[in-house]
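During the reporting period the student researcher (J.K.) took over the structure-prediction task from the postdoctoral fellow and processed the backlog of single-chain submissions. One of the processed entries is reproduced below for the supervisory committee.
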Amino acid sequence: MSNILGLDIGSKTVGLASSTGNVAKKEITLKFEEWNFEEGVNLLTEFIKDKNYDTFVFGYPKNMNGSIGERAEMVDYFIEGFLVYNPDIKEDQIVRIDERRTTKMAKSIMIEAGLSRQKQKENKDTLAAQLILETYLEQINK
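J.K. obtained the following C-alpha cells:
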C-alpha cells in the first residue's frame, strides 16, 4: 500500500493531507515567514521524518490558459529545495497535480458547511491539500 502526502504550497504555508489507500485525510498546516521557503522546507522535512512517504503530490497552480506562471514556478522552487534537503527522495517520487480550482472548491465546501471565517482560514490549506490528493487518487485508481 502506498503512503502518499498531498501538499498545497503557499507563500507562507504548506497544507498537508495523507493517504495510504483511496481516501485522503487532512493533516496539518505548516506555517513559516512569508517567502522563507528554506524554513518551509525545514518544517516539511521534520514532519515527514519517520513517516515513510513514497509519493509526494504537489498542487501545481497553472494559469487558467494552462501556462506556467509565477505560482507554479514558486512550487517548482519549493520542490527543488525539498529535494536538496531530502536527498533520499527522488524526482520520480514527486507528482505535480493541476490545482487551478482547489482553493475555490475548498472555500465553497467550508461555506456550505457553515464554518466561520476564522475556521475557514484555519482549514483552507489542509482542505486544499486534501482535494489535491483526492484528484491524484482518482487519476491513479481509474
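The committee noted the following: The first helix runs from residue 37 to 48.
J.K. will present the remaining backlog at the next meeting.
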